[in-house]
Records
---
Amino acid sequence: MNAKITGDDIREWRTRKALTQAMAAKRLGVAENTLMDWERGKRAIGVTRGVTEDQLRRVVQTVFHT
C-alpha cells in the first residue's frame, strides 16, 4: 500500500460522517481499540498484527473515497 493515511484523516472522515469510534471501526473492519490507537497516534497505521492488508485497503478506500 502506497497511500499515506493518518489518524487525523480517519478522525476527520469519522467526524464528517457523524460516526462514533465503534461505528467507524465496524465500517472499516478493524477493532475499536485499533481505531482509537490510530486516531491518537499510538499505533502506526499499516499491516500489523491484527490488521491484514485487505483491512488496510478497506480503510484507505473508505476514508479517501467516501
---
Amino acid sequence: MYNKRTLLIDHVREHATIYIFMMILFLTGVIFGAIIVNSMNFVQKQDLFFYLERFFGDISKEDQVSSNEILKSSFLYHVKYLFILFILGLSVIGLPVAWILLFLKGLVVGFSVGFMVNQLGANGLFLASLSIAPQNLLVIPIYIIAGSLSMIFSMILLRKLFSWRISQPVLQPFGKYAAVFASLMVFSLAAAALEAYVANGAMEMFIKSLYHE
C-alpha cells in the first residue's frame, strides 16, 4: 500500500505540469462559457430561457424519466467520453482533440451555471448547486485525470517513435494506461448515480417548490 502511494506521488510530481495544464484548460472553458452568456443579447437569452422555462414547467407538472434511466444514459455518456479520450491517447495525433473535449466540458459547465444565475439570480445559483454540482464534483476530476493520462501516454508513444535507442516494449505502459481508464469508468458510475438519485431528485423538488409558491 505504501509503495503504491509513493508511486502515485512520484507520478503526480513527474507530470504535474500536464495536470496543471489540463486544469487550466478546463477553467478556461468555464470562463469562456460565462463570457458567452454575458455576450448574448436580450433576444437570444429570452429565446433560450423560453425552452428552459418550458422544461421546468414539464418537470413541475409531470413525472419525469425514472432515475434508473438517467443512471443508464449518464453512465453510458461518461463511458463513451472516457473511451474517446482513451483512443485519442493511443492515436497521438488526436491529442489536440482531447484538449478541445476538455475545454468544451468546461465551457458547457460555465455556460450552464452562468445562464441560470444570469436569468434566475440567487435561485439560479441554488438550482445549479443542486442539479449540476453534485455529479460534477466527481466528473470533473475524472475527466481532467483522463485527459492528462491521454496526453502523458501520447508523449510516451512519441518518445518511443522518435528515439533511436532500443527501448522497452510499450505493452507494460499500455496495460497501466488501460487499467487506470477502466478504474475511471467505474468511478464514473458513482457520478452517474449522484446525478440520477441525488441531483435529479433535488432539482425536481426545488423546481416544483418554485412553481407552486
---
Amino acid sequence: MELPVEDVVPGGTMDSRRADASRESGAEDRLSIPVAWLAGLIASNLGVVVWVTVLGQPSVPIWLGPFELVVLTAVAALMTRRNAPRPLLHYFWMLPAIMLGQIAATAISQTETWISWARQVPAVVSFAAANGLKILPATTLALTFIGSGLTRQDLFLTIGDLRARLRRGQTTIRWGALIVIAIPTTTLPVLANVVAVRQPELPLSVALTLAPIIVLGATANTLLEEFVFRQGLLARLVPAVGEGHALGITSLRFGIGHWFGNPSGPIGVLLATILGVFAAKCMLDCRGSGWVWLLHWIDDLVIFTVIALTVVYVAGP
C-alpha cells in the first residue's frame, strides 16, 4: 500500500524516492518475475498432478513434499544471495513456510490413526477435519508476518469497502453487483462437478442433521484458503511484481491446487483459476475480503452439503 509523499521528503526528492521504490519493486531485475512464477508453480499442487496424472503413478511418494520444500528453500536462498528486492524476498521465503505446514498436514492425514477414524465417521466430518488441517500452513504462513509491520488491511483481513467498483476504461460497476452475478455463475458449475465426482446417494434430510458441521467446515475452509492462497501472497506480491503478475501467480496456484480437490480435474482447475482472478481483483479493489469471503463461503456450503450426502470415505479436501 503506497503512502502519499511530499515533493520534498527526508532522504531525497520525490523523484529519487520513486526511483528507489522502482528498484525495490524489482522493476530492474528481469529474473525476478519469471522466478516468482516458477516458485509459485512449484509451491502449487503441480508436482502431485504431474506424478499421478502425467507419469501414471498410483500414489504420491512420501519424498515429494520434502523435495519441493528443499527446492523452494534453495530458490529463496538463491534470490537472497542475488540481493533480490526485499518485497520479493518476503514472497520467496513465504512459500517454503507454507509448504512446511502442508507437509505436516499431509503427514497427519496419512497416519493409520487418522484414516481409521475417518472411515468411522460421516464423510462430511472427515472432509471438514481434513480441510481443517489447513490451519497448519495458515499458521506457518502467519509466522512470516511477525514483525513485518503489515496491518490487517494490508493483509486484506478486513471487510473492506463494499461499495468499491471495478473500473475498466470508462465503464465502472459495483463489486456487489458482480458478486450477485458470480454466485449462481460459480455455484452451479461447482455443484455439477462435485456431484459428478462424489455421486451423493443419501437423502437431503441427512444434510440437515449435519448442518452444523457443514456450516462450520465451510466457514473454516473459506477463511483458511483465502489466507493461504490469496491474502498473504497478494500482500507480498503486489508491491514486488505488480498487480497483473500477482493476480496470475495466485490464481493459477489456486487453480492447480484443485486438480484433486472440489471441484476437481481440468474443469476444476479452470473454474478455480477463473474464480481466483475474480476474487483477487475484488480484494485489491475493495481493500478487503468481505465480498470474496461471501462468495467462497456459499460455494463451500454447496460442496460440503454434497459431501454430506455421500456414503463413501472421503480421503481429503
---
Amino acid sequence: MKFSKTLITASLFLSTVAFADGHDNGNHNGNGSPAERTYAVTITNITYGQVFTPVLVATHTRAARFFELGEAPSPELADLAEGGATGGLQAVLDGLPEFVMDTNTSGLTPDGNPLINPGESVTVYITGNRDYNRLSLAGMLLPTNDTFVAIDSMPLPRKYSASMALAYDAGSEENDELCANIPGPQCMGSPFSEGLAEGFVHISRGISGEGDLAASDYDWRNPVARVTVRLMD
C-alpha cells in the first residue's frame, strides 16, 4: 500500500495494535498558547446492524487530514478500516505535534463493551484551541471488509455542534463479504489483507449479500453515526 498524500508524512511508522488489545489515551501535544479547551465528543451508532470498533479522535490544524476521497489510503488508515487497529494512525498523529494537538481513542460503552453496538453512544474527551481547531475521527464498521465511519477535519464549535458521519470504504481490501476475511464477534475472521482492492477511499456501498453476510441484517444507508461536540470549559 502506498502512503496517502493527504496524511502528513512522518519519518517513522510504529506498528498498529488491534482494537481488542485495549484503547490508548493518546498524546497531548498543545503548546499551551492560546488557551486549551476541552471538548466532549459523543459518537452514536445509528445503524440497524453494524457495530463500531473503538473510535480514534484527533484535534489538529487545517493542514492535517485522515484521508482524501479518491486517493489511496495510508497503511495506518487501511489497518483501522480492515481490523479496527487505531494504534498505527494514532502513533503517526502523535508524532506530528506541529500539526496535531491531541488524540484519544474511545473506551468502554456504559455496558462495559469496547465495541459500540447499534443505538449505543460513547463519549471521548479531547483538547483543542484556536490554532488546533479541527476535529477528525474514524472507527471500523463490523462486519465489513474495510469500511469505516469517519468525520474528516470538521471545525471545532464555539459551544456545541451536531453532525452526521458517513461510512467510507478504504479501498484496501476486496469486498468479498466472506467471514474468513472479516474480524469481530460476528465473523471471527482475519483482520488484515495484502495489497489494495479498489485502491482509493470512497463512499461505502454497504453490504450486498453476495458472501456470508445477509444484506437484510447488515446493510445500511448513510449516514451511520451522529456526532455531537460540546465545549466543556
